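Blinded run. Sample ID left blank on purpose so nobody reads anything into the name before looking at the predicted structure. Input follows.
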Amino acid sequence: MINPRSMAVLIRDRAANQFEDRTRDVSEIRTVGQRIEIVFIDSNKPFGYGRDRVRILRDPKRHALTEGERVEVNGSAWESATEVLTFTGTGGAWSRIFYRTQAGEDYRTYPASRVRVITSATQTPAVASMLHYWRTVVSRLPSPGHGLRRTGSRLRLR
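Blinded prediction complete.
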């Protein structure tokens, strides 16, 4: 089995002409001349691929998400994401997002152009300072029913 934190195995689907992450399905990779042989977990038979159909990416750049950071994929924020690994290779960069599920940890892989790490605006010093100010103001307001009286008068607009 391939360690998904150290390697990504992408195979181009001929029909869709897009690369798909097959890392979790691969048990062994061998280079034989100009071809790459891949043995899948559910089969002991090696399958041969031309080099143009396979991307084997190694040594990713790791980004563990901190409090206030989220991963956005195709415009949607992932609340359960914990880590992003970015693999670079001849065919471009790919990002692998690890996230929590009820069954444990899982991951998905996307072209890096579709993935970004976003930071909460509250982590920006100017915004954090403004929020602190407003929290201080609110904390000094009297509790409902203490210190404020209704006067019964109304504001008339003409």
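Unblinding after everyone has recorded impressions. The first helix runs from residue 125 to 139.
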